[in-house]
Design brief:
Pfam families: SBP_bac_1. Keywords: Cell membrane, Lipoprotein, Membrane, Palmitate, Signal. This is ABC transporter substrate-binding protein. Residues 1-19 form the signal peptide. InterPro entries: Bact_solute-bd_prot1 (IPR050490), SBP (IPR006059). The protein is of the alpha/beta class. It has 2 domains: 3-160 and 322-387, D-Maltodextrin-Binding Protein, domain 2; 163-319 and 407-445, D-Maltodextrin-Binding Protein, domain 2, CATH 3.40.190. The protein contains 19 helices and 13 strands. The strands form 4 sheets. A 6-stranded mixed β-sheet has the order 1-3-2-4-13-7. The radius of gyration is 22 Å and the shape is globular.
């Protein structure tokens, strides 16, 4: 992996970084950690486990797990030394550490778009198969495939990232639309026409800087992607062309959508626009709930969460977007202990419950979705109602794995810089022309 490619990836995958609510200001990257936490330093004969992350919130999850571990395993105590770094610095330093064979942590978070960098050549991560394989039948297994290679599972997912539709029920009721009637994208268009005819809102927004929030999940629903599972570029296949045509038509033919203010639905401009009733729906992963609570508090009690419309009756109604895979490096002082602790923190039943109660994420293990702890009242149920996990149980088998390669950031760059500008903003190029041109650019770089 060339260093220039690493920096390209860092810049272009910032939109996926937002997906896990983490990161810092890259301009502030320094040699020191932004935040540190130590658990178990007063325990005699404790084995130190070092942990690097780029999301400060994740430190709370692991600190809690370390405290519980030490209470339950007094004969095998650990001293957890956790550090949070800016996104760019952490991934850069981690990649250099695994390549050089020194200076790395025992455990680390790796953002999903960066993960393929760490699977190049001889993999310097510890396989987690002995812990992953026993839980796969009770988990959304496609999310584990994102961190796997050659039959080995290297990363433990932090959430499903199930992509859903968020509907403003006040606007939909004013338009005379029953959201339960929206089962397919054709239904969505018809509902959008009612919204536009009967309210001052549009149905939806299409992003120009947000591959993660419309194009990618919509093609994933149809078992397509930018690459196939051999790493070959398929960005310009017919499914993807038709999907981009749908986005273009939503704006210019059906006139039920407009371009997303700020280019993406994670911008201050968009939050104000949506809070004021600019649009009736948002397509986003379940972790986007936190964006509502933090940035659109006035909409509490007005937003309903439903599956994505299917492309055809019986089709997939969700996609898994964003994510962080946590790994054990081969530099761990005690790799078996580090692997066991990581599985305890993120694969155990209690660990998965904590992913919801501590972080507000949809846990990868669906067998925890009906537990009392997951169903207990919290701020998300107060805002959205209590049917979140019932809906997820409906779509848990409708989430496909994603295909990442070292050229994923090139795809995203082409999509944001050229495709969305000519097809969606300027409306002067066909989806087929734009996607073929973008695909050829990336093929030339392979």
């Amino acid at each position: 992996m060339k260093k220039s490619l690493l920096f390209l990836i860092i810049g272009l995958m910032s939109m996926v970084l937002i997906a896990c609510g983490g990161g810092g200001d890259d301009d502030d990257a320094a040699s020191e950690a932004e935040e540190t936490a130590v658990v178990g330093e007063d325990l005699e004969d404790a084995t130190e486990i070092t942990f690097w992350t780029f999301v400060g919130q994740h430190m709370d999850l692991y600190s809690d797990a370390a405290e519980r571990w030490n209470e339950e395993n007094p004969d095998r105590p650990i001293k957890l030394s956790a550090e949070t770094y800016p996104f760019e610095q952490m991934h850069n330093n981690l990649l250099l550490a695994v390549q050089s064979g020194q200076g790395g942590p025992d455990i680390a978070d790796i953002e999903i778009g960066q993960f393929s960098n760490y699977l190049q050549g001889e993999v310097q991560l510890e396989p987690m198969n002995e812990y992953v394989e026993p839980v796969l039948e009770n988990a959304v297994s496609s999310r584990f495939e994102n961190y796997a290679q050659d039959g080995n599972y290297y990363g433990i997912p932090t959430h499903v990232g199930a992509t859903v539709m968020y509907y403003n029920t006040e606007i939909m009721e004013e338009a005379g639309v029953d959201i339960e009637s929206i089962q397919t994208w054709d239904d969505f268009v018809a509902a959008g026409e009612q919204v536009v005819a009967n309210t001052d809102s549009v149905m939806w927004n299409v992003g120009t800087e947000d591959w993660l929030m419309d194009m990618w999940p919509m093609i994933s629903q149809q078992e397509s992607d930018a690459f196939n599972d051999q790493g070959e570029v398929i960005l310009d296949n017919q499914t993807n062309i038709d999907t981009l045509q749908f986005l273009q038509d939503a704006i210019y033919e059906h006139e039920i959508a407009e371009l997303t203010p700020g280019g993406m639905n994670q911008s201050e401009e968009f939050y104000g626009y949506f809070s004021e009733g600019g649009a009736a729906s948002i397509l986003a992963p379940l972790w986007y709930m936190g964006r509502f609570l933090d940035n659109m508090p006035d909409l509490e009690g007005k937003i309903a969460i439903r599956p994505l419309p299917a492309w055809e009756e019986g089709g997939d109604r969700s996609a898994g977007m964003g994510g962080t895979g946590t790994v054990v490096t081969n530099q761990a002082e005690d790799p078996e202990l580090a692997k066991e602790f990581l599985a305890y923190a993120k694969l155990s039943e209690e660990g998965n419950i904590k992913l919801w109660t501590e972080l507000g994420f949809d846990p990868p293990r669906w067998d925890t979705w009906e537990s009392e702890e997951v169903r207990a009242d919290n701020k998300y149920y107060d805002y959205f109602g209590d049917g979140i996990f019932d809906m997820l149980l409906e779509v848990r088998e409708e989430i496909n794995p994603l295909n990442f390669t070292e050229h994923t950031p090139d795809i995203i760059s082409e999509y944001h810089t050229n495709v969305t500008q000519t097809v969606l903003r300027q409306n002067n190029q066909t989806p087929e022309e734009a996607l073929k041109a973008a695909a050829d650019v990336v093929r030339d770089q392979q």
